[in-house]
Amino acid sequence: METIENASLIDAGAEEINSWALLELFGHSKVAGRLTSRKLGTEIMFQVDVPRGEKEFSHTELYSPKAVFAIKPTTEDWCRRWATYASSEMMRDILPYVPANRQLNGPPASERTGFEEEDPV
Q1: In what order do the strands lie in the sheet with 68-73?
Q2: I need a labelling partner for 32 at 20 to 30 A (CA). Which of 75, 83, 87, 98 fits?
Q3: For residues 27 and 53, what is the distance between their CA atoms, to the nearest angstrom?
Q4: Please, which residues bridge with residue 18 across strands?
Q5: Is the pLDDT score of 84 beyond 80?
């Protein structure tokens, strides 16, 4: 377990953010990675570089500050472990189960792409 001296802290008085953090978004999703602020035109956005592996990044995501519910500063190690967990097989099926009687009619079997799931009942 890491001590507080090793944790990534965000200076409340700083104009720019450059820290490892977990962002909680209003859409009830979470993303962890290297958090920086970026100016795009007249808007300030949060840029999250999502880690993959021990030293790489898989992709970058940009968020409006208005979409962020919470920012939780943490360590690089924790963000990399979160990214591994979030990309695992367990987290891929994030949509809730919808009973067959509440589902919309999909395309006929001959037109399916193979990504649709069969009725589990």
Answers
A1: 56-63, 43-52, 30-40, 18-25, 68-73
A2: 98
A3: 26
A4: 36
A5: yes
